Amino acid sequence: MSEGLRLEDWDRNDPDPWLALMMDRSLPIDPHAKLALLRDQRSPSRQFLLPFVRPIARLSIIAAQLLHTISPHWPHAPKFLHRTIAYGMRHFLTPDANRLILRHFHLGSQILRFIADNATPGFQPELWPMRPRTIDDVKDDLFLRHDLNIYNFLIALNAELDRRGARVWRVETLDFSAIEDEVVLDPLPKGRFNMIDLQTAIELYTPAYALFLTDRDFWRATNSLQLDETIGLYVARLTGEEKHLALVVNGHPLVPHSTLRAGFRLVLHGLSTELLHGFLRELKAKHAAARHAAGPPDDHTSFIGDTDV
């Protein structure tokens, strides 16, 4: 645990709010991800740089959208956009920020696969792979494909449900094979300029997203954030558990938010994904413990055939 986030640093006359959040166990979040997020949130970059960056970023989004009002399809440079993002991640973002970004794609992919495994067994929508291990993996239009995956998943999954004449209901025996406990990443850069926190970085990237994608691509990307509620509802129906829905803050996709707050909402989207994945990890462990307590099935024939005759 980093300095200031250790119990031995507790000053009862001046308790650190970040330490209180670190010690709190109310949220189902991976402890390593939580530590990375809190270290990033309490950084000087977020405290002193973000207040200046945010209003400039939002004015830049307005300028980019005015340009796309006149020219909806130009400029359109997703490859340049992703190479620029990768360059910034490598040279300026903190290791914690980079870890949270790369980790997010893994978790999102696992959650979608969990839903498909249980809602439509035997069918998996065809999606772009989302298992980046290095910053260079971002260059392959990773952010754009992540947004496309969400919409394509919802369309393909529900088309398959319609074909089967089925709906998303509670599953008695859940398949948790998609939910992994660890996300393996290659070592991340720790140079002298790797000081920009996640929230500031996202505010800086969002105007570039608005400028170098088409108006339709940017609109689709920002409004995909509100699908957190939709994904959370699918998981609730499959598991019969609803308490995690209280943690979803990007909701009501039928009524889209303004794109000006896309940067902040993207941070909330990342947190919602962490919490939903953490909830599924806890549920997976609970089901495994219940099976272990129940013991092996009472089936003596299971041992027949194991010996040579």
Describe what you observe in this structure:
It is a single chain. This protein is mainly alpha-helical and 309 residues long. 57% of the residues lie in helices and 0% in strands. It has one domain. The protein is built from ten helices and no strands. The chain is globular. Residues 300-309 have low confidence and may be disordered.
Question: Which characteristics define this entry?
Answer:
single chain; 309 residues; mainly alpha; 10 helices; 57% helix
What's a concise summary of this model?
The chain is mostly helical.
- What string, H for helix and E for strand, traces the elements in order? HHHHHHHHHH
Let me know the average pLDDT.
92
- What gap, in angstroms, lies between the N and C termini? 58 Å
Rg, nearest Å: 22 Å
Low-pLDDT stretches are 300-309
Cα shape: globular
The proportion of strand residues reads: under 5%
Question: What is the makeup of the main sheet?
Answer: none
Q: What structural class do helix, strand and pairing data support?
A: mainly alpha
Beta strands, count = 0
Kindly give the count of domains. 1
**Number of helical runs?**
10
Instruction: Tell me roughly what share of residues is in helical segments.
Output: 55-70%
